[in-house]
Amino acid sequence: MEQPTDSMEITGINSYHIDYEMDAPFEPSWYPELEQHVHKVQLYEVETDAGISGITSVTGDASRVDSLDLAREYLVGEDPRHIEQRLDDLASLNSYGPRPWHFEIAFWDIKGKEVGKPIYELLGGDGDPIPAYASSGELRSVDERLDWVADRVDEGFEAIKLRFHSDDMAEDVAVARAVREAYPDLEIMVDLNMGWSFAHPGGGTWTFDDALSVARDLEEIGNIGWLEEPFNQRNYERLARLREKTDIPIAGGEFNNGVHQFREFVEHDALDVLQPDVMLSAGISKTKLIAGLADMHGLQFAPHTWNDGIGFAANVQLLACTNPSWCEYPIEPPGWSLDTRDFLLEEQLTAEDGAIVPPSGPGLGIDLDWDLVEELSESTA
């Protein structure tokens, strides 16, 4: 194990834009009429004068927003291990627009590598398996979705998530009803993806009556884990009103920005399930505070994890040092396969018997395929 040094400075931040050609087209339900053929990732490598580098990334649409120049201005010359102080720097960056929370993941990666421990161990966690639910990403017919569910059940999953985003919501309800009839004991989560649908052309919104109608249908179907993001991510009053009128737990928060917005969820009694993402919402330290907020108020904590393999690993490290309800496990082959999600990694993060074991190597616990990075990337180092 390496001994910590008295001082350490960030000396530079390398950036790599990577386009990975997917094995098959992917049609995300949250982005109507998009057929995705390429998984876009912006990879960052934070270098230090101690010879230790930390990695982080942004994926999908977020990879188009470049905060690199500002990040270099605020972070180069600072000690990455002083994470509370660096969070002040990131808060300043956040005020300019692009979310900077993913950089904090690189600081934790450096801190873990310096002492030879995974992040979860630094934060008091353990390496026990975390129950996972299989998270779909497309709208499919009843027969296609039943085939997908059969595969997931065979893999040991005891819960799955369906997407509702059809023009005719009755089609989505029919899928959920068919899954329930075929699998009476399977827990079903439902994601409406209305929390930030305004960001996409044709994304649309739901009325209160739309959401309540679907909630009533789901009450009839039974054993529904939650109804996710029925309205805009900051419409706290409407979320609270729906929560009062249904027995179905209401979930959300994947794209909310900062701890204060989750405090608003709690103060408005707006959600039953808090779903921050360490890459998008708050970083690891502050997301751990959100987990504590959920615990204090008797709410579920189940982070969003739909990222590339680095983002997934970062969220799993956080899950391993909190008290989560579930780990989201994105899987929608052939388009969104493990090859697509984890293409940057030397070894995929695979669920076994419906659970994910947090990677136990130092820092994030993962190794990148740097040969592939060099092959596919446009470096802006």
TrEMBL record:
Pfam family membership, one: MR_MLE_N
Q: Does the keyword Repressor apply?
A: no
What are the Mandelate racemase/muconate lactonizing enzyme C-terminal domain coordinates in residue numbering? 142-249
What SUPFAM superfamilies would the database entry show? Answer: Enolase C-terminal domain-like, Enolase N-terminal domain-like
Keyword Metal-binding attached? yes
Q: Which cofactor does it need?
A: Mg(2+)
Recorded GO molecular functions are: hydro-lyase activity; metal ion binding
UniProt xrefs under InterPro entries: Enolase-like_C_sf, Enolase-like_N, Enolase_C-like, Mandelate_racemase_C, Mandelate_racemase_N_dom, RHMD-like
* Keyword terms of this UniProt record: Magnesium, Metal-binding
Q: By what name is this protein known?
A: Mandelate racemase/muconate lactonizing enzyme family protein
Upper classification of the organism: Archaea, Methanobacteriati, Methanobacteriota, Stenosarchaea group, Halobacteria
